[in-house]
Design a protein that fits this description.
Blueprint: H1 2-25, H2 35-45, H3 48-54, E1 56-59, H4 74-83, E2 88-90, H5 95-108, E3 116-119, H6 132-136, H7 141-156, E4 162-163, H8 187-202, E5 215-219, H9 238-245, H10 247-254, E6 259-262, E7 266-267, E8 270-271, H11 276-286, E9 292-294, H12 302-305, H13 312-322, E10 327-328, H14 332-342, H15 348-365, H16 377-383, H17 387-400, E11 402-406, E12 419-423, H18 449-453, E13 460-464, E14 470-471, E15 481-482, H19 490-498, E16 502-508, H20 529-539, E17 543-548, H21 556-561, E18 564-567, H22 575-583, E19 649-659, E20 662-671, E21 677-687, E22 698-707, E23 712-720, H23 721-724, E24 726-727, E25 733-734, E26 738-745, E27 751-758
Bound molecules: 1-deoxynojirimycin.
Residues 65-66, 120, 164, 217, 296-297, 516 line the site of 1-deoxynojirimycin.
Length: 760
């Protein structure tokens, strides 16, 4: 037996040597070879340190998006670039800067391996589209895809070829500031949007000069930070992990995503960055992901603070063994990994695997054939802020607006003969509408609401800011300071409102009140704005409340008193134009909420697809023993999927029938109002009894339809095992026959209902 094993080993060694010598004879610059072959050839030429170098990502020297573990060590970075010990850089931008670092990597290092250049292109580069949560409110997958492709077009023109987007974390807690960056609370909608965004960034051919690599983040569980406090502990069970958190990541892989980012949080006791179960067993094992995983900023070294790693070297060992391929700014791999391999603590095969994954993506991008392909000065000048990008941004902005309430059809506004008072400092703000995560956009480049309204000249507009929202000039890194005392402008605002036919109040959050590190415990209107609203209401209740915010807010008072409420999020560069078009009815709003708006912050986490509990209803008048609050309803103020139009829709003739591979559903939707409008037809199911309890409602289909007055359209859906099944507590997909309830309508609440028996 021993002899046989020895024979096999010698044979294997010969084969390796043979392929090694074949590989060094081949040239990785030979374009006739596939990306995979070229990677193999190149890898065979690399030293251990050079391979580890590919796993090292440095920040540019001038911009940080987190605390830099080694502050300002630029000399070391330059030295490492020359040695070929850097695989990627982030926050290097602009053709000149990218060319400069690329030149060092390509022309001064031994093998000339080009860098992949990463950047947070979250909702655009310099021209901004709405924040991702707002885009999700459009439920318009084509528009979302276009928006991502426009972001890729602009970013690729300034040298960037990799975006750290989309964030596909499902989030149910509006206190968490990063809800602005995702697609909301629902895994079905979130998965469709993840797919669209990846396709938008990457297109169908990564080697084109206008497509860039996407990154599904943050793997995994980041959106479930306890109490909505950013970076906080995550403790979730198998059912939530497989049924809620994982699907948008799987959808990203289906769309061909080339990279993943892991996350800052620990998941059930193990930091995601050092989590073998997540990265090796699930992502690279079960899901067969062949791209690479980048750590989050310094998340390898943060495993020490988590209490998981003893020191940086130990952190590097844990992360590399767990499947984190690239180290963002921890300096852990570049400083420690070679020794760990020599000591036998990390196998060289794992280094080869990581470097292979990274190099292959670079080959697919075409970087070896032309490392400066994204560094064309003319293209940069031509494409930055290009009209085509602005146009897509305006289109996306209009589609993202949600009409929450419209009593007595106060909206749309009349175009002539009106005196309109505009109140609120956000109405004139040209920076806040850009939202958070806009590292490259310049302050003051958004169209303000006042500017948008000024395009319509049939009405008289009077403006009064009422009160400041923030103090000083906020930025991406430091804490925003809110005005909580100064109300000097209230009397002027009231005087302005008193005389008007209609008052437009533009209130909400500053763009930097949401985003990374920006959690809040009170999600009402910040500062003195609630008071301003109530004061103005006393003199003129005919108010249209235009909201700017990066997360769901608590709006109970406004809902009780204000006749019209328009959710306008932070809509990016074209913000004011989009809002004006909707206010005047040149665009009929069709957005639907991707996240529930609570009545009270104490309800959080709040989501429409909750479980029923054993005590869902009041047992008898005044008896307390059921799942409820003493002081507030259980339901959302504005539920998931809610959103009105200037026209109305009627649903009828729901027909549900078994068909070959599942269930066929048909519904007639009729426009019974006077204007053409769009409706998002939503289909939900409830699996009534199952071995693992199922939510009271789960979105399983939607379609955006446009209808002229009196027009009827039949919308069809097919439910297959994919929609009817679920993951059990062993992570296995299960389909259980039995009774299902089915709901169709224009929100998760307003539905018509039937049931069917699924025979399996
Ligand atoms: C930290 C954030 O969590 C991540 O999403 C981002 O891509 C990196 N910083 C890089 O800026």
């Amino acid at each position: 037996m021993k002899k046989i094993i020895m024979g096999i080993s010698i044979f294997a060694a010969l084969i390796t040597m043979l392929s090694f010598s074949i590989n060094i004879e081949k040239d990785h610059m030979d374009k006739s070879l596939s990306a995979k072959e070229r990677t193999e050839v190149l890898l065979a030429k690399m030293t251990l340190e050079e391979k580890i170098g590919q796993m090292n990502q440095y920040n540019g020297f001038w911009n940080v998006t987190g605390p830099t573990p080694i502050q300002g060590d630029a000399a070391k970075k330059y030295k490492d670039l020359r040695k070929g010990y850097v695989g990627s850089m982030l926050n290097v931008r602009g053709v000149d800067e990218v060319r400069a670092v690329q030149k060092i990597a390509v022309e001064e290092s031994r093998l000339g391996v080009p860098l992949i250049i990463g950047f947070d292109v979250i909702h655009g580069y310099e021209t901004l589209s709405p924040i991702p949560l707002a885009e999700a409110a459009s439920w318009d997958l084509e528009a979302i895809k276009t928006s991502a492709s426009m972001a890729a077009l602009e970013a690729s023109a300034v040298g960037i070829n990799w975006t750290f987007a989309p964030m596909v974390d499902i989030a149910r807690d509006a206190r968490w500031g990063r809800v602005m960056e995702g697609a909301g609370e629902d895994t079905f909608l979130g998965s469709k949007i993840a797919y669209a965004r990846v396709k938008g960034f990457q297109g169908d051919d990564l080697s084109k000069d206008h497509t860039i690599v996407a990154c599904a983040k943050h793997f995994a569980g980041y959106g479930f930070a306890e109490a909505g406090r950013d970076y906080n502990t995550v403790d979730v069970g198998t059912s939530t992990l497989y049924n809620i958190i994982f699907p948008p990541f799987q959808a990203s892989i289906d769309a061909g995503v080339k990279t993943f980012m892991n996350s800052f949080n620990e998941l059930n006791g193990v930091p995601a960055t050092g989590n073998k179960f997540l990265q090796r067993d699930i992502l690279k094992g079960k899901w067969n992901f062949d791209g690479f995983v980048v750590s989050d900023w310094g998340s390898i070294s943060e495993m020490i603070e988590h209490g998981h790693a003893m020191d940086l070297k130990h952190a590097a060992e844990i992360a590399a063994n767990a499947g984190s391929d690239m180290d963002m700014e921890s300096n852990a791999y570049v400083d420690e990994l070679a020794n760990l391999v020599r000591e036998g603590k990390v196998e060289e095969a794992l280094i080869d695997d990581a470097a292979t994954r990274i190099l292959q993506v670079k080959f697919e991008l075409g970087l070896f054939d032309d490392p400066y392909k994204y560094c064309n000065k003319e293209r940069e000048e031509k494409l930055l802020g290009h009209q085509k990008i602005q146009k897509a941004s305006l289109d996306m902005a209009k589609k993202s607006i949600v009409l929450l309430k419209n009593e007595n059809s106060l909206l749309p506004l009349k175009k002539k003969g009106q005196h309109i008072a505009v109140i609120g400092v956000l109405a004139s703000d040209k920076t806040s509408p850009l939202g958070s995560w806009r590292i490259a956009a310049k302050d003051g480049t958004a169209v303000s609401v006042l500017e948008g309204l000024s395009q319509y000249d049939g009405n008289k507009i009077s403006y009064s800011k009422g009160a400041d929202l923030i103090l000083g000039t906020p930025d991406f890194i430091t804490e925003v300071k809110i005005n909580t005392t100064d109300k000097k402008g209230f009397s002027d605002a009231k005087k302005t409102a008193e005389r008007a036919d209609v008052v437009i109040m533009v209130l909400g959050e500053h763009g930097f009140q949401s985003g990374e590190g920006r959690s809040r415990t009170d999600i009402g209107l910040p500062g003195v704005q609630q008071e301003l609203l109530e004061e103005v209401y006393k003199v003129n209740p005919n108010i249209v409340l235009v909201l700017n915010n990066g997360r769901p807010l608590t709006l109970s008072w406004a809902d009780r008193h204000i006749p019209a409420i328009l959710e306008c999020w932070q809509l990016g560069t074209q913000s004011g134009n989009a809002i004006a078009e909707v206010l005047y009815g040149d665009y009929n709003p069709s957005g639907k909420l991707p996240m529930s708006f609570p009545r009270n912050v104490g309800q959080l986490p709040l989501y429409y697809n909750y479980k029923n509990t054993g005590r869902p209803t009041l047992p008898a008048p005044d008896v307390v023993f059921w799942s409820h609050y003493q002081d507030e309803k259980n339901s959302a103020l504005y539920p998931f999927g809610h959103g009105l139009s200037y026209t109305q829709f009627e649903y009828e003739n729901l027909v549900v029938k078994p068909k070959a591979n599942g269930i066929s559903v048909k519904i007639d939707v009729k426009n019974i109002g006077k204007l053409t409008g769009k409706e998002v037809v939503q289909l939900y199911i409830r699996d009534v009894h199952a071995s693992i309890t199922r939510p009271v409602k789960e979105l399983k289909g939607f379609e955006l339809v446009s209808l002229a007055p009196n027009e009827v359209k039949t919308v069809s859906f097919t439910l297959t095992e994919k929609e009817l099944g679920f993951y059990n507590n062993n992570g296995a997909f299960t389909v259980e026959p039995g009774l299902f309830r089915l709901f169709v309508g224009g929100s998760s609440k307003t539905v018509i209902e039937t049931s069917f028996d699924f025979k399996g």
